[in-house]
Amino acid sequence: MLQSGKSPVLNAMEPIVSHMFEDHFEKTGVLKCACERCQADILALALNHLPPRYTSTQAGEAYVKALFQEPQLQSDILRELASAVQVIEQNPSHAYE
Questions:
Q1: Most Cβ neighbours (<10 Å): which of 34, 36, 51, 68?
Q2: Mean predicted confidence (pLDDT) in 72-97
Q3: Which tens digit of pLDDT belongs to each residue from 67-80?
Q4: Each residue's pLDDT tens digit, 19-50
Q5: Residue 37, exposed/middle/buried by CB under 10 A (0-12, 13-18, 19+)?
Q6: Which residues contact 73 (CB under 8 A, 6 or more apart)?
Q7: Using CA of residue 29, residue 34, residue 40, residue 44, what is the dihedral sign?
């Protein structure tokens, strides 16, 4: 049974995708809108199209990170991020607030 507080389970894809987003999109200044809402929407959309990699240990997280040193897997993440950027830039949710 889970205790209240921080979950012992982590989707190791989240920090990997977030880091790649920062390096390839956020830092480069290519985003039409860099507000926090659009960035969160881009990350959520990309993560929803990538397989989750859940782990409950730091060793498991390190293993998943090692898997994503493969060029094809990095390419898959970049493809989903680019697609998500395009979708969110065409339909920013902050425009509806």
A1: 68
A2: 88
A3: 888 899 999 999 99
A4: 999 999 988 888 888 899 999 999 999 999 99
A5: middle
A6: 67
A7: negative
Q: How far is CA 44 from CA 24, 63, 83, 96, in A?
A: 16, 23, 12, 18
* CB burial of residue 66 (10 Å; 0-12, 13-18, 19+): exposed
**Both tokens of residue 15?**
């920090």
Cβ neighbours for 9, distance < 8 A, ≥ 6 positions apart:
54, 55, 56
Residue 5: C-alpha distances to residues 2, 8, 15, 23, 85 (Å)? 9, 9, 20, 31, 32
Find where tokens 């993440």 sit: 77
Tokens 């507080």 belong to 5
Sign of CA dihedral 32, 37, 43, 48: negative
Token pair of 13, please? 């894809």
